[in-house]
Amino acid sequence: MSETDKSPAPPPLQLAFPKDAVLIDLPAVEDISVPPMDLRRAIESRVTLRKYSGEPLSGGELAYLLWCTQGVKKVVPERATFRNVPSAGARHAFETYLLINNVSGLKPGLYRYLALEHKLMIVNLDGDLAVRIAESSFNQPHIKQSAATFIWSAILWRMKSRYGERSYRYIHLDAGHVCQNLYLAAESIGCGVCAIGAFDDNALNHVLGFDGEEQFVAYMATVGKKVEE
Prior knowledge:
This protein is α+β, with helices and mostly antiparallel strands. It is 31% helix and 24% strand.
């Protein structure tokens, strides 16, 4: 029996969402087609980019990036999920939020990725949201210019119920795994990424409606199509 099987039952695998929430279907994983790219080439060509073209991401490309960063491959009911990224004890403490600026078929605003359903949920379509998130991140301009900005919030109890105070270490290690997958996946579809760790925690959590203790932003990353050279 594995350590995961012997551990106490963890908190819910995903934050609950309202029954009347507006959900948006994403292209099925098996239907997503991306150009083949050698892993070594993806690793060696990966760089941080803060300037993007005005070309939108397609719905399929967004679904691919979400699948590569938090896609669920297997569910052990009420105990764990196994995903495309590693996580301490298979706890997967993150919820993925998306600031959408330029994705085909989606209105600008804030969305949440429901990994178990492989769907998007509309959270907030306020027109000034991109400005407020950028202001909370020391006015980094690429947040407003990206096609999408990935925002990973940690649900502390999902990790802490097993690992106690060491959870803070594991959450930040897990954030690195997730963001590196985003960098490599984006490279394969002609996109660039800029990881963001510089933000005002209190201000950003307030804008997003998080309490800053049980749920808080751990990491962010902008994504957009590369500017042709």
